[in-house]
Design a protein that fits this description.
11 helices, alpha/beta, Rossmann fold, 6-stranded parallel beta sheet, 34% helix, 2 domains
Length: 329
């Protein structure tokens, strides 16, 4: 019996997921919901599925085993709760929310229902990441260095900090999440940014460049540098430094520098595909053990990035990162 999948949001990242699902045996893209009829029609032309303008109508009319929520940060208003109420497995693209209280309600409902649910931090699934985790089992991390050096994505909502949450929240979130996955919880952040260098793009309210310093609960320190000003991006990567080696990880490659040698490990499979395969397997089996980014854990990454944004707005004031359930850090 085919796994019937619906989508709330049919834009760029949703299309990537649909491409992966369409290549899997026994998976049927059954329904598409988007506020843009043109976007939904484009997706339908490639992947099929009934079109809806209202996700509640889609959930009421269709028998769906799983639903992907792939909408901009500002647009999250409880769609996830509706999916859970409909009894479908839930996949939520990052960042999962800009509202920690709403996120808390969703996380608790997932836990109450013991629902199959995960989030789109696909860097965790890369085999380069898994190889690095094996190395770190034997080494204590001392320092973490992240960089996301790219350009302005011209989607109207992305270039507006009010709608996207800002580059740290919407994009660099992958590096904060990867650092948490590899090293552990971040408990303190302080951040600075510069603005005012972009005057020719209507609706642009982002920081032009930012730096975030963090302390991990286990004692390591880290720095994350980001910009969206470049016409030719330099890419995104995370470097971890231990006593006897340094390793730089992307979704495509892991480079390990040791005292006597440097070794490069290319990725063997696309991380996003591995993520989608793990989710569909969990939908079929009910076993969530291979889902590497549960909703509550993804919400903690949001808490880190929102703390960094708060520090930016307060001129670098030190912020303690609380747990998503508001328990003491």
């Amino acid at each position: 019996m085919a796994v019937r999948v619906g989508f709330i949001g049919t834009g760029l990242i949703a299309t990537s997921h649909m491409e992966n699902l369409a290549a899997m045996d026994g998976v049927h893209i059954a329904a598409l919901c988007d506020v843009s009829l043109a976007a939904a029609q484009r997706a339908q032309g490639r992947f099929g599925g009934a079109i809806y303008a209202d996700h509640r109508e889609m959930l009421a009319r269709e028998r769906l085993d799983a639903v992907y929520v792939c909408i901009p940060p500002f647009a999250h208003s409880g769609q996830e709760l509706d999916v859970l109420e409909a009894g479908a497995a839930l996949f939520v693209e990052k960042p999962v929310t800009l509202d920690l209280e709403l996120g808390r309600r969703i996380a608790l409902e997932i836990e109450r229902r013991q629902a199959v649910a995960c989030c789109g931090y696909h860097w965790r699934y890369a085999d380069t990441t898994q190889r690095l985790r094996e190395l770190l089992d034997k080494e204590a991390v001392i320092q973490v260095l992240g960089r996301w050096l790219g350009g302005i994505w011209m989607a109207p909502w992305w270039k507006s900090k009010e709608l996207s949450g800002g580059q740290l929240v919407e994009q660099v979130t992958h590096l904060f999440d990867l650092a948490r996955y590899l090293v552990g919880e971040i408990d303190l952040v302080t951040a600075f940014a510069t603005r005012g260098h972009v005057k020719d793009i209507e609706g642009y309210t982002l920081d032009d460049a930012s730096v975030v310093n963090v302390r991990f609960a286990q004692g390591a320190v880290g720095n994350f540098a980001a910009t969206c000003l470049l016409s030719r991006g330099l890419g995104a990567e995370l470097t971890v430094i231990a006593r006897d080696f340094a390793a730089t990880c992307t979704t495509n490659q892991l480079r390990v520098v040791e005292p006597e040698r440097t070794v490069e490990y290319p990725a063997r499979a696309a991380a996003l595909r591995l993520e989608d395969e793990a989710f569909i397997e969990a939908v079929r089996s009910g076993d969530c053990s291979k889902l590497l980014s549960p909703y509550g854990d993804a919400l903690q990454t949001v808490a880190v990035t929102l703390a960094a944004e708060a520090s930016l707005g307060q001129g670098g004031q030190l912020h303690r990162v609380g747990r998503w359930d508001f328990a003491p850090a």
